[in-house]
From TrEMBL:
Residues 129-288 form the HhH-GPD domain. It catalyses: Hydrolysis of alkylated DNA, releasing 3-methyladenine, 3-methylguanine, 7-methylguanine and 7-methyladenine. Keywords: DNA damage, DNA repair. GO terms for molecular function: alkylated DNA binding; DNA-3-methyladenine glycosylase activity; DNA-7-methylguanine glycosylase activity. This is DNA-3-methyladenine glycosylase II. It comes from the Bacteria. It comes from Actinokineospora alba. The keyword DNA damage applies. The keyword Transmembrane does not apply. CDD domains: ENDO3c. GO terms for biological process: base-excision repair, AP site formation; DNA alkylation repair. InterPro entries: Alkylbase_DNA_Glycosylase/TA (IPR051912), DNA_glycosylase (IPR011257), HhH-GPD_domain (IPR003265).
């Protein structure tokens, strides 16, 4: 059992309107099985996050309705944003399934929703760390940076490092955490304009993604990964992902396809291509493996 945080506890109860996969909307925020900022245990789902008011810790217990508790300076903001975080603002009423597989998964999982944190920085930092490396590498770096430079939060969690904390990290510390020079430069460039990047949530859609892409080192894939989580962008397809096009191709066409072919195949779903891709991935079909797995590279050795 997790030790319950001490200090002032704020609470909120929220009842979903219709079928709603509450936990599924929150899990895209988890960065690996040992994420210092996210935990799932017998006491519920736990999230530590940065807010304009400071760090907050959120615990969710789900039993039909959602029982939320929050602690820390950011507690009120986390509770205010709870419905959107769990996908209540996600409107999929105009979605039309153009593939039998998509239609079947949508029928079986009517509660799939896109959650929105309402904030850019935490998810942007994680997305940059995940650029062009395996999940194992990215999660290891995320754990190290959060535990060493993040803000300790109640119940043993750590909120991700703030922009200010990031800019104070020495070069050798980056190297120790396993972050190469290119990603390090992108993190620092984003940290310097982090306040302005929060406007991407207000802009939303393609305009929000375009704002993020003004930072050197942030491209279409990174902007999409942020948009999916920060404002629940249903059209933010992760073009450039190492696996996505092949997973989509094998599931829908029975063969490997390129990113351009994936965009062509999913064009009928615009402006909800990301949602369509999620339905395809939820089918769990995977793709055939004909070669060894990609070997992670440990940048700490160089």
């Amino acid at each position: 059992m997790t030790a319950i945080p001490t200090g002032t506890e704020r609470t909120r109860h929220w009842v979903p309107d219709g079928p709603h996969d509450v936990a599924g909307a929150l899990r895209p925020l988890r960065r690996g099985p040992h994420d210092p900022a996210f935990r799932e245990d017998a006491d519920g789902l736990w999230l530590a996050a940065n807010t304009p008011e400071g760090v907050g810790t959120l615990r969710l217990r789900i039993a039909g309705e959602v029982h939320a508790s929050a602690w820390g300076p950011g507690a009120d903001l986390l509770l205010d944003g709870l419905p959107a975080l769990l996908g209540a603002s996600d409107d999929d009423s105009d979605f039309v399934a153009h593939h039998p597989l998509v239609a079947e998964v949508r029928r079986r999982r009517p509660g799939m929703r896109l959650g929105a944190t309402g904030r850019v920085w935490d998810v942007l930092l994680a997305a940059i760390i995940e650029q062009k490396v395996t999940g194992t590498e990215a999660h290891r770096t995320w754990r190290d940076l959060a535990r060493r430079f993040g803000t300790p939060a109640p119940s043993g969690l750590f909120a991700p490092p703030t922009p200010q904390a990031v800019m104070g990290i020495e070069d050798w510390e980056w190297h120790k955490a396993g972050l190469d020079g290119a990603r390090r430069r992108t993190v620092l460039a984003a940290a310097q304009v982090a306040g302005r990047l929060e406007r991407a949530v207000e802009l939303g859609g393609a305009a929000g993604r375009e704002l993020l892409c003004k930072v050197p080192g942030i491209g279409v894939w990174t902007a999409a990964e942020v948009a999916q989580r920060a404002w629940g962008d249903p059209d933010a397809l992760s073009v450039g992902d190492y696996h996505l096009s092949n997973l989509i191709g094998h599931a829908l066409l029975g063969r490997r396809i390129t990113d351009d072919q994936m965009l062509e195949e999913l064009a009928v779903y615009e402006p909800q291509r990301h949602r369509a891709a999620l339905y395809v991935l939820a089918a769990g079909l995977g793709k055939p493996r004909f070669a060894p797995r990609f070997s992670p590279r440990d940048y700490r050795r160089f």
